[in-house]
Write a structure and sequence with these properties.
There is one protein chain. By secondary structure, the protein is α+β, with helices and mostly antiparallel strands. It has two domains: 195 residues, H-NOX domain (Alpha-Beta Complex), CATH 3.90.1520.10; 112 residues, Arc Repressor Mutant, subunit A. It has a five-stranded mixed β-sheet with strand order 3-4-7-5-6. α5 packs antiparallel against α6 and α12 crosses α13. The longest helix has 17 residues. 32% of the residues are buried.
Length: 336
C-alpha cells in the first residue's frame, strides 16, 4: 500500500481509545491525534509513526496493534461501518466494503477472490501488495476479525491469515492466540481466507431501509472526495456527514475542522465561496442525485439534506429548478 494512501481521522481515534483504556498519558501522541477531525485525511506515514511511538509505551506487549484493533467500533470507520452493519449478510457487507473502501483508504485496494486450491470452497480478501506497515496492518486485521466475531455466536475462525511483515517468535505466538488460525508472515499481500459459507452469515443488525439511505450517503461521499489542492471540496465532504445530523452551521463546521469561524470564512473566500453558497450548492447537488433515486421518499431526502421539514425541501428545490420535487422526479422518470 503506497505512501499516497491514507486513513481517516475517525480510524486514528482507535489509538486514542487504546491510550485511554491503557491509562497512558502520552501527551505528545495525543496532541498529534487531536489535530484530526473524523473526516480529516491522515497520511499513512503519520499513522504508522504514531503506532510505533504508542507501542514503545508498552514494550511488554509483543503485538500491541492487536489490542488497538480489538477496540474497533462502527464510528471508527465512518459511514462505511454503518453500511456494513446494516447489510443483510456477511457477503453483502464485504461487497459494500469493497464498493466504498475508497472513503477509508483514499484508494480501491481490496480484492475478493475464490481460492481454487483449498479443500473446501474458500474466499480470500487481500490487500496490497506491500501492506501499510507492520503495526498498521496488525491493527487493521485485528479490527476486521473483531468485527467478524461480533456477527453471531462464536463464528469459526478464518482458514488462514497472511501478513507482509516478518514476526518474532513472541509476536507469532500472540498472533496465533488472537486469530485462532494458521498465520503466514513475509507474504506478498495481506490476506484473510475463510470458508465460503461465511458469506451467508446473517448480520445481526440488518436494516434494509437504513441500508438504502446509507448507500446514498456513501455514494455522495465518494462523489465528493476532495481533489488535491481543493479546499472547498474537502469542506463539502465534511458537510455530507453533518447534513443528516441536522446541525449544520459555520461554527459547527469550523469546530470539526479545528479552526475558528473567521479562519474558515477566509479560506472559503479564497476559494471563491461564501458559507451559504457552499451549503446551498452542496444541498442542490445532493437533492438532484437523491431525487433520481425512486427508492427514496421525500421525507428521507429532507432528512439526508438536513431539513427539519419536508416543506423546506420543496421550497429549496423550486428555487433551484423552478419545479417541485414531485414534478422534477416525474420529468426524470419519463426520460428513463
Amino acid at each position: 500500500m503506497a505512501s499516497a494512501r491514507r486513513i481517516t481521522g475517525a480510524w486514528a481515534q482507535l489509538l486514542t481509545d487504546w491510550l485511554d483504556r491503557e491509562q497512558l498519558a502520552a501527551p505528545d501522541i495525543r496532541a498529534v491525534l487531536a489535530r484530526f477531525a473524523p473526516d480529516d485525511v491522515v497520511p499513512v506515514g503519520v499513522w504508522s509513526e504514531l503506532l510505533v511511538r504508542a507501542a514503545a509505551l508498552r514494550p511488554d506487549l509483543p503485538a500491541p496493534g492487536l489490542a488497538v484493533g480489538a477496540g474497533v467500533q462502527p464510528h471508527h470507520v465512518g459511514v462505511l461501518g454503518y453500511v456494513v452493519l446494516a447489510s443483510a449478510t456477511l457477503g453483502d457487507a464485504m461487497l459494500a466494503y469493497q464498493r466504498y473502501e475508497r472513503l477509508f483508504y483514499g484508494a480501491d485496494l481490496v480484492e475478493l477472490a475464490t481460492v481454487n486450491d483449498a479443500e473446501v470452497p474458500t474466499i480470500e480478501i487481500r490487500w496490497g501488495p506491500g501492506g501499510l506497515s507492520a503495526l498498521a496492518d496488525e491493527v487493521a486485521i485485528a479490527a476486521l476479525l473483531t468485527f467478524l466475531r461480533r456477527q453471531g455466536d462464536n463464528p469459526p475462525p478464518p482458514s488462514r491469515i497472511a501478513f507482509v511483515h516478518r514476526a518474532t517468535v513472541a509476536q507469532s505466538a500472540a498472533y496465533h492466540k488472537f486469530f485462532g488460525c494458521p498465520i503466514d508472515f513475509g507474504n506478498s499481500h495481506v490476506r484473510v481466507r475463510f470458508p465460503a459459507a461465511y458469506l451467508t452469515i446473517p448480520m445481526p443488525h440488518s436494516d434494509p431501509a437504513l441500508r438504502v439511505l446509507l448507500d446514498r450517503q456513501a455514494q455522495a461521499l465518494l462523489a465528493a472526495l476532495p481533489e488535491s489542492g481543493r479546499f472547498d471540496r474537502a469542506v463539502q465532504q465534511l458537510l455530507l456527514r453533518l447534513l443528516p445530523e441536522g446541525d449544520v452551521t459555520l461554527e459547527r463546521l469550523a469546530t470539526e475542522m479545528h479552526q475558528s469561524s473567521r479562519t474558515l470564512q477566509r479560506r472559503l473566500a479564497d476559494s471563491g465561496l461564501s458559507w451559504q453558497q457552499l451549503l446551498d450548492r452542496t444541498r442542490e447537488q445532493l437533492a438532484r442525485q437523491y431525487l433520481a433515486d425512486p427508492s427514496l421518499g421525500m421525507s428521507d431526502i429532507a432528512l439526508l439534506l438536513g431539513y427539519t421539514e419536508q416543506s423546506a425541501l420543496t421550497r429549496a428545490v423550486k428555487r433551484w429548478t423552478g419545479c417541485s420535487p414531485k414534478q422534477l422526479r416525474g420529468a426524470r422518470a419519463k426520460l428513463r
